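Long-time lurker. I teach an intro course on protein structure, and each term I like to show students one example going from raw sequence to a predicted 3D structure in token notation. This year I'd like something fresh instead of my usual example. Would anyone be willing to generate the tokens for the chain below so I can use it in lecture? Attribution to the forum is fine with me.
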Amino acid sequence: MVDALVSFVIERLGEYVIREVEFFRGVKGEVESMKNELEWMHCFINDAQKKQVNDDTIRRWVLDIMDIAYDCEDVLDEFIFKVHNEGIPDTLSVDQATTSERRQRFLTFLEKICCIICSKTRQQIDLYGIGKQIERLKGRLNDVSRRRQSYNLQDINNNIEGESSARGRLNSLRRISSFQLEEMNVVGYDDDTRTLLAHLLDKKKPQSFVISIFGSGGSGKTTLAGKLYHHAEIKNNFSHRAWVSVSQHYDTKDLLQRIIYSFNKDRDLPKMSKVDMTNEESMGRYLKKSLEGRSYLVVIDDIWHKEAWDSLKRAFPAENNGSRVIMTTRIRDVAERVDDSTFPYALRFLRPDESWQLFCTKAFKNSHVDQGLEQLGREMVQKCGGLPLAIIVLGGLLASKTRKEWSEIRKHIWNDMVNQNIEITYLLALSFDDLPSELKVCFLYLGLFPEDHEIKIRKLIRLWVAEGLVLQKGENTMEELAENYLDRLINRSLVQIGLTSRGRIFTCRVHDLLRDLAIRKAKELNFFCTKHETQNLVESTTSRRQAFYPGRNTPLLLQHCSLLSRSLFFFGQSSFLDLPKVCIGFRVVRVLYLDNCYFENSNNLPEEIEKLIHLKYLGLRNTSILHLPSSIGKLQSLQTLDLSTTREHGGRIQIPSEIRMLTELRHLIGCFDTKLKIDNLTKLQTLKNVHGWVWTQIKTEKLVNLRELRIYWNYPTKNGEVTLDSIANLKSLRILSITLFDGSSYFGSLEPLSHCEHLQDLNLEGIILNLPENLHELVPNLECLSLDGSNLKDDPMPKLEKLLNLTHLQLGFDSYRGRKMTCSANGFPRLEILNLCPGPLLNKWDVEQGAMHVLRDLKIVVHPEKGLSKWVRSINTLKLSARVHLERDTICRL
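-- Reply from a regular --
Happy to contribute to a lecture. Here you go:
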């Protein structure tokens, strides 16, 4: 893995040096020369990538180069900081006592570059001096080349196939496969599901009790719990459901917060205005009182200690109303002794037929099984011992391999058998080693997140871009490249799909065993450091990425972190975090992740934030920050500003006018109902969520790169009409969402949408709408459409079925008020998912033969007062393989 990281650092360094130095101008030729030398170094690293790094000599060689690259990056960051904050220095100060001779020579070279960069304050540029330093660097690289021959690296390319042939051209992947979308084709567990469902729904046992599912890591405990949690009978029998993951390192206060938020996703519980979400007792009382007299189901996933349940148990009322708790654990003792009323359930391994079926879904993507590969595949699957995770990873590894490569992998597996059973850690490492360099680094990055953490896809992509893990190539944006990286990791089964929304992946997660692999590899490279409360506080680290998990020792842990850290992740920290001190101390940081943190003494982002001139990602989601200082305008490198808040955290963040100075800003996320000066932010790609009247004040002509826009209205417009005229300027728009709360307005026309030729996802909620006859011509590329609350009078199906690319359609609450719907033959040719919440007048739905022929999921939320009408029973005319959900919902919303 050393090779992959060195390759990444060198490539990124070349891009960084060019970008920053050209900003100062005057030394273009010299910098181009340096870039050429760095590219030669990169070639040497690529040679090292083709050689096994088990050789300690080679490992030392690439580590030395990595240190040089890191030192160069450090000095450049420090210099630019001084230019911005301390004026232009005459020379750079270097600590002779603590700097190695190798590093000193490199710093001397960079010193000369810095002197030239500062030449605007001097009378002339000493180009000859710079040339001498570049020659010195070339000499060092010649030394590296000679050492390369000593290590016998020159003939490597003749023996090992390079990565380029396997990569190919980047596909424009916008959708995910049917198998991935909602983990629909869960293999096995049918008998387990029936057994546990019977216990969960047993009316003869109304008292609350716990079902604990236990088994080894990767055996499918969470998958089975998820299958139960989302089962239609469970949804219909438990009015309140919540899911929380515990893991080894847990904090009771954090668990209670997440349980409450899980219950409140659909506004299930009473208002939380008087709940102190930082106080464990207050949250426990609120939760217990809210659940009294209600039937609930709670899934507590991945519990390691009985004490974790003991700390939560008092927050759940013990009543005779059939409420249940499902737990998953790897530890038999915890499963059997967690509670007096526990029903422990040992999860078996998959049978041979189930193992083969699961393998085929990954290795052959549910297509025809290659008979020539079947025997090889069955032999390897047998060695997985029925362990689902091992089978899934093996299938993902083999999915893109040739027959020869299948044979090679089988031979390796045979050589690494332990007691006639596969060593799972070896198989995971094999899949990791098979990744191309760019995917290796992105996979390592996932280890930063806490165990069992649901990682939001868009957030992860923005972090990868901010970290420089994705470099611009071709016409694709860095976000598109990052999305492709993630899709490839998912296809290899190294990343699991979490939640989905509107036909797209919303969250992902990493299995514990794979996360352990990422952490172990990252530790070898000093790529990042994770800190728990129980760790040795005096243990210093020079890692450039630090992750702090919930605990009380964060301030002390910070004292032992490198001040050259590029990324600081604070997961759910409390008011003990001294944010001004962080801004002053960690001045070269690029990512500051503060989501779900509380700052008791102030609701203001400190003025010291201006010190972080290299900052690219600032995450303040669900924090107590309500005010941004004007100094935010000095963050000239900022790409992502995430200010999303919830009602429990107070009002909306006030944005200063200096935001117009953030010309590199790509993603602005929050809740904006005051004037927003972003007219000149030409690189902006995401804007969420802006009030309608604020949006009307923005000149949209320069927002040429805007791809996602979410607008909301809290009240009707003065003339009762919402127009889309300003949308016509957004030529790059892919996702548009307009929501109206507490009022009624209507669209004048959908014609402006015709200018957004790339529009794929449209959500119109709470707005009276008339669908035009030429809708399919206005938005020909539309893939997702939601029309909740549109109060359509005419049958929408004849117009909607002409949208040839539509795959996901939602006609939710108050979307259609008519009596009949008709879907004609061959209509909706690509529709996969259809969600309906029909109005009370609907009594007939005709579906002609051939309509919606690829539909795989039909969800109908039945009106609570109307019940099942005869039109619902008529859906058997749909000769489809689709799943059909019939659900009741107290508020009849999808």
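Some talking points for your students: Residues 148 and 154 are 7 Å apart (CA to CA). The chain has a mean pLDDT of 76.
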